[in-house]
Amino acid sequence: MIVWGRSLFLALLLLGTLFVAVTMRDLPPLVATNFNGAGAPHAWMSQDRYLAWMAGFGILLPMGVVGVISLRERVARLGWWLGCVTLGFALGIHYLILLAHRTRPPHLSTPALLAVGGVFLAALAVWAAAATRAMRPPPQA
Fold it and tell me: Is 7 exposed, middle or buried, given 0-12, 13-18 or 19+ CB atoms closer than 10 A?
């Protein structure tokens, strides 16, 4: 389980980094990054600042999650999976921002955001259930 989780995490990290690097050229110099409930933008970042934010949110945060979870012996093997969930969420948000910028003015799709958020929460719930099960004391013989 550790090998699969680590392999998937590293593959997602590599492919995600390439995805963000390649798609940055599709974003305008000023990137809408915060949207109201109707999907209209109300906060922007420069492309450089957005790239730095994505590096933190899409690379450093998932790596930090893996590092912190690995400190707990019983759930250490699950850290890679939580890193995958976190990385997948960051990439999903980046994809939604790319889609939002295909329209003028930019518009974030609420159903798409709910879908990405729902998948993230469902995956987080599955991970939490697995972590809870791993934290149970072993049965007494």
Answer: exposed
Q: Which residues contact residue 24 at a Cβ distance below 8 angstroms, ignoring those fewer than 6 apart?
A: 47, 51
pLDDT of amino acid 141? 65
Report the candidate in 80, 74, 85, 83 with the shortest Cα–Cα distance to residue 134: 74
pLDDT band for 135, please (50, 70, 90 cuts): confident
Domain ranges (residues) in the chain? 2-132
Which has the closest alpha carbon to 86: 56, 113, 115? 56
Q: What tens digit of pLDDT does each residue of 21-72 get?
A: 999 999 999 999 999 999 999 999 999 999 999 999 999 999 999 999 988 8
Q: Exposed/middle/buried for 139, CB within 10 Å: 0-12, 13-18, 19+?
A: exposed
The residue type of 59 is I
- Measure the CA–CA gap between 77 and 75, rounded to whole angstroms: 5
